[in-house]
Amino acid sequence: MTDFSLPFEDDDAFASAGLRLTVDLGALVENWRELARRSGKARTSAVVKADAYGLGIEDVGETLYGAGARDFFVATADEGATLRLYAPEARIFVLGGIWPGMERRFFENDLVPVIASEEQLTFWMAVLSEYGDYPCALQVDTGFNRLGLPMDDAIALADDVSRPASFAPVLVMSHLACGDDPSNAMNRQQLEAFRKVSAAFEGIEASLANSAGIFLGPDYHFDLTRPGIATYGGEAVPGMANQMRPVATAEARIIQTRSVKAGETVGYGRALQLTRDSRLAIVSAGYADGYMRSQSSAGVPLRQTGIPGGHGFIAGHKVPVAGRITMDLTIFDVTDLPGNLVRAGDYVELFGSNISVDEAAKAAGTIGYEMLTSMGLRHERRYISEEAEE
Length: 390
What we know:
Layout: H1 13-16, E1 19-24, H2 25-38, E2 43-44, E3 46-47, H3 49-53, H4 57-67, E4 71-74, H5 77-84, E5 91-94, H6 103-109, E6 111-115, H7 118-131, E7 137-141, E8 149-150, H8 151-159, E9 171-173, H9 185-200, E10 205-207, H10 211-215, E11 224-225, E12 248-260, E13 265-266, E14 272-273, E15 278-283, E16 311-314, E17 317-320, E18 330-333, E19 347-351, H11 357-363, H12 368-373, E20 380-384
Parallel strand pairs: 1-20, 2-11, 3-4, 4-5, 5-6, 6-7, 7-8, 7-9, 9-10
Antiparallel strand pairs: 1-12, 12-15, 12-19, 13-14, 15-18, 16-17
């Protein structure tokens, strides 16, 4: 029997992890402050839904609260309850609104529901009649045709002198459909529509701009901006130089390297046939970890036409995915790197400062939002922070 009584030094979980994620909280703060600067006279909130875009609502929320954010947006009441522990004096808006049975959750955690439908509005009026004054936000649809009261209904509500005095929204908001396409006429149409809404709710703060909306200019800023993806380092407007710092770096350990002869095939379905003698690195990340199957190598039949395969980064070099990405493993072709630069135990960057999350997303035929929020639970996380100057 093996004797495990010998003393062992404490493991460094991050250093030994098969998958690791580094979150640069200093870069996060710098991005948020830059977006606040670009928001001009408007206050700038922090959108931390979906576990802060996959990066951890606890650490991200506490960091942005410490940086000065006092308005936060989450998707669910459970997210809001978690955030309340880390942002004690913040105003926390719940984008999914409130439904019967959720009142206690909202009241105990001082959460502000975003009322976005006639059904929610009817229920909310009943809540106010029973419990008295409580703040809410009102979402109005200005052309997105997703969530929100129809414009005419919202304006009629504003003018309804018979509405309960306890119904007093602290924010009226809408959402841009094409903010990431600055030349799209829809932006101006929504802006004019929202101006009518905000005028009807005179004296109540208004919010329209997401990350992309901030870059559309001061007409779109109103009283409160709501940046999401740009705070986390993603591009807000495709084709525009991204001035945000990368926040997240995902890496996977090389489990094995192997030499394969020209003519042999790689992976499931023999999807890739090698045209030269090659050296391959097999790493511990797959689609269960958010490294998507659609990033499989160029030429694999499952790929969308015209979209290149994914790449990793190691030892100063980009290396292509080889064959199909599987649930737990991805193969990279490291043939063009000197052999002494790639060894089992080394790490390949999946995205970060060398391969942006948006570049990785494009290789998968998707967007940076999905890359970040699709990361699984197997990444060992490390949060780093350098003091960001005001």
